[in-house]
Amino acid sequence: MESRYLKNINSPDDLKQVPKSDLPLVCNELRQFIIQEVSRHPGHLGSSLGVVELTVAVHYCFNTPYDRIIWDVGHQAYGHKILTGRRDNFHTNRQLGGISGFPSPQESEYDAFGVGHASTSISAALGMSVASLLKKEKDRNVVAIIGDGAMTGGLAFEGLNNTSMDKNNLLIILNDNQMAIDPIKGGITQYLVDITTSETYNRLRYKAYRVLQKAGLINENKRNRLIRLTNSIKSGLTRQGNNNIFEGLNIRYFGTVDGHDVLSLVKILTEIKNFSGPKVLHVLTQKGKGYKPAEKETTIWHAPGTFNVQTGERYENENPNIPLFQTVFGETLLELAQMNEKIVGVTPAMPSGCSMCIMQKVIPNRVFDVGIAEGHAVTFSAGLAKDGMLPFCNIYSSFMQRAYDNVIHDVATQKLNVVFCLDRAGIVGSDGITHQGQFDIAYMRCIPNLTIAAPRNEHELRNLMYTAQQADMGAFVIRYPRGKATTANWRNDFMKIEIGRGICLKEGNDMAILTIGTMANPAARAIENIENEQKISIAHYDMRFVKPLDTELLNIIGKKYKKIITIEDGVLNGGFGSAILEYFADNQINIQVKRLGIPDIFVQHGLPEELYKILELDTEGIKKEILEFV
To answer: How would you label 183-217 residue by residue, b for 16+ Cβ within 10 Å and e otherwise?
Structure first.
């Protein structure tokens, strides 16, 4: 598609030179650009397609970057990046050394706040709005654009509560598409539908604001009386008759608005942006808008990989017969649930991502998608466990950080039998610093009453899941990576694993390698390469458990070897290697230990194999470290 306007837009100032009547053309060009680029360079598609008109309208109406625009969730922001000087570099999106898939202040002054996890925008934007007032920057606008299910998160409501209390001029744009990755479940969705269907009320209330404001008949003192009046009107027009939640919190509400009518969006944003006090604009959008396959199957086209734009054919990765760890988890959970009626599944808006949807299709009444609410997912699981159920609570490693207190206070202190499955542990890849699962070993192993395990392959994952659902296992953590398993023949007969028991994968005489989780695989290849090339005899132990450690095995290793190397795909500070060092030090075992893992950095975005190479945690890097140490 030939570009008329987009090719010349390198900043919002360039966008403002476009005649207002031609903004729909800009939207069409922007949408087609996103489709073409993401088809070749995989990323998040549906969310950004759904906010094209909103993106154009916001940058047309506001003075960015002086005005602050905060995107929540961050993968809505592809159009934003393209309009703010990153069009020509957009083909590097999520690639090593390229631009980030999420807004990043380190990347651009137009990215007002780092956003990779959901539900943070209102709190952050409120802080900025209050800061502007304190600094007497009365002309600065602050906008939080919250969508893709982020309003189901508790932090969003904490932000709303604070917004109603403190003086501010925050504008919250609610991008309502009734979707996260999967369709949103829960009461907030139905509530937004109820607001949406009250078109007569919304139209009358908005007109009242416009007329009174233009006539100079409304000010802060009279605003609350108008809200009470319009709520009275609503009570006669809606089936519920109760107050709008936003107005009940003393936040002015405008909506609903067609999120795909860019001219109407420009008109209303121009009119309300300078209203004093907090306000909400409720915008209705369709995820995947403008690309038929993405409109039809929104979950699949959330992040579809590479695809043919014309046909909608998605290209499969190599070795399609080898499953993802996520598939192994989902299939195994269903098998165990069919064997054990106490098992239930709990996930915070990730049933497809973690493959809990497999059990959900067969036993829907025993799977609970609780929305983007990790803390609630953990405490809800604790309640289930307290009264006799056995929840498998699947939360991505980096998202579990948001539920840390709940793990300690609601599960560990009460020794409840909750199985935490930490998906996306280790290096995740293209999603970058906000999604790398590098911290979970360190932040989990200091908590009493937890068992922490990591399978080296899909068979161990199945056996650990089988073990965790045995009686009286207490709180049990299983961490595993994103990506392919090792073989197509992944189904095995279940076997209970002894808690805190490692395994010798290979005998050796000169030194020992201790690994946790899937780091056993590149380590095994490195050992084989070294032994084929040099006369060095290397033992290899898969410890399997970070907590409790196999102390019997460590005592044997400590007596037999003078040098060992520990290898993990988590942070070195407080991680698996630290646990080994602590045991040897506490027990006066004199042994030289070298730790391999992630240093004290945030790991940027790139393909996992690229990042493991940079971190020297691939086969060649481990081989190099062994040879230097031996």
So the answer is: bbbeebbeebeebeebeebbeebbeebeeeeeeee
The answer for residues whose C-beta is within 8 angstroms of residue 171's C-beta and 6 or more apart is 141, 142, 143, 144, 272, 273, 278, 279, 280, 281
pLDDT over 70 percentage in the chain: 89
Point out the residues that are catalytic.
287, 374, 402
Return phi, psi of residue 413, to 5°. -65, -25
- CA 116 to chain centroid, in Å, comes to 6
Give burial (CB, 10 Å; 0-12/13-18/19+) of 157. middle
- CA angle (628 as vertex; 624, 630 as ends), nearest 5: 115
pTM for this entry: 0.89
Q: Six-digit token pair at 302?
A: 């959330």
Distance CA 58, CA 55 (A): 5
Handedness of CA 97, 98, 104, 109 (dihedral sign): positive
Rounded CA separation 425/2 (Å): 43
Rounded distance between C-alpha atoms, residue 335 and residue 292, angstroms: 36
Residue 409, C-beta contacts closer than 8 angstroms, at least 6 positions apart: none
Comparing CA positions, the residue from 158, 60, 26, 48 lying closest to residue 102 is 48
Sign of CA dihedral 173, 179, 184, 190: positive
pLDDT for 101-140, tens place per residue? 999 999 999 999 999 888 999 999 999 999 999 999 989 9
| Rounded distance between C-alpha atoms, residue 106 and residue 89, angstroms | 16
Strands 545-547 and 450-453 come out as antiparallel
Question: Collapsing DSSP states into helix, strand and coil, what is residue 117?
Answer: coil
Decide: 375 and 407 in contact? Cβ < 8 Å.
no
